[in-house]
Amino acid sequence: MVNARDQSRPSAPGSIDELRIIATVLLVAFHVVGQTDSGLRIEDGHPARFIVDLGASFRMPAFAFVAGFIYCLRPPTRGHMRDFLRGKARRIALPGLIAAVLFGSVAYMQGSRFGIPPEALWGLAIFPYAHFWFLQAILALFIVVGLIDIALDHRGQWPMFAGALLLALWPPPIPTLFALPQAIVLAPFFIFGMCVYRSWAWIAQHGRLIVPLAAVAALLAFSGAFYDYLMLGVSPNTSIASSLLLGMSVSLLILLRWPHHPYARKVGQFSFTIYLYHVFATAGARMALHTVGIDALAIHLPVGILAGLLGPAALHLILLKTPVVGPLALGIRTKAPAPRSAPAQHVKARAPASALALPATSSRPAVPRGQ
Predict the structure, then answer these.
(1) Which end of the chain is more exposed for a tag (fewer CB within 10 A), N or C?
(2) pTM of the model as a whole
(3) pLDDT at 110 over 70
(4) Which residue has the higher pLDDT, 367 or 197?
């Protein structure tokens, strides 16, 4: 049995697409700035380094929140878990594996530390790798949370959230297969997204109280980060406690108060492709600028971010028109050709009136592409 609220809701409330876009931009910015041995290798103390390090407590939690939120649009039901998992494998696992194999192979040919030799590519299916670990963690959450959600009749999200919170704060020893340790860390955000979706009517009704409380929580997280940066000269704290405080509060604030734009969903459809392939574009832009002798950060940062966003978006549009490869890489269904219909007068002459009625449309909302 599915929660009636999940089936009756016409669309995702709030600015969920804007939240996904913001998290995507922060992820691209992080890979442009890089770390000590990747990207632009900007050192601690630089404002750009501070921003992307602070974003570490928000961007992946926000992605997990969005995944849990959208999970409620079409949750698994009794007897249909296999179909649910098959859909997630097509939409997430297969495109992620294709992108990971391409990234690992290209990095291997370039001699990068991310390089994966051909004989070891099989490990990408079970071991966390680069930024693709998130896909394994989310798939693990879809499976575990989906089974528990079915057992609790789609009504036990708040007890699940409490349990996930305890596990994240005091994680048990667990193997790294399928990014399970990361899944435990992300579980509270995923389930919190479920809680917000299924309690949306109450949250929207009490927004005047919730927004100030969320703003205070976010302010506390920001204040601690600024203190570490300005007074101690260190990167912001990325502990699970700070991530919980910042990730949940800011996600809720964006959902409740960020202005929703009608084109946000059209832009958000590129988020998954950007997640998979932005590293190719950011690295390409960086190497191209270095080749022509441009080293200024003021140029590298905006060019790298724009390349990381626009390059995969262009690839997405190309793949949409590419048969076989496109649907596999994007995780979308292939559209079957529409059957040829008989001439109108022929149908009218042979078909009874009842056969001419339009089919009833499904009441289930469409899942935004990329999840």
Answers:
(1) N
(2) 0.84
(3) yes
(4) 197
Listed in sequence order, the DSSP H helices in the chain are 4-8, 16-33, 47-55, 59-71, 81-88, 94-110, 133-151, 157-169, 180-198, 200-205, 207-227, 240-257, 264-268, 271-291, 297-320, 325-330, 344-350
Contact 165, 180 (CB under 8 A): no
Q: In whole numbers, what is the pLDDT of the chain averaged over residues?
A: 84
The closest of 29, 37, 55, 59 to 235, measured between CA atoms, is 55
- CA 142 – CA 145 distance, rounded (Å): 6
Closest CA to 276 of 129, 143, 113: 129
Q: Which amino acid is at 184?
A: I
Q: What is the model's pLDDT at position 328?
A: 93
Fill in the amino acid letter for 174: I
Structure tokens at 210: 């919730």
Q: What is the CA radius of gyration of the chain?
A: 22
Token digits of residue 121: 């590519």
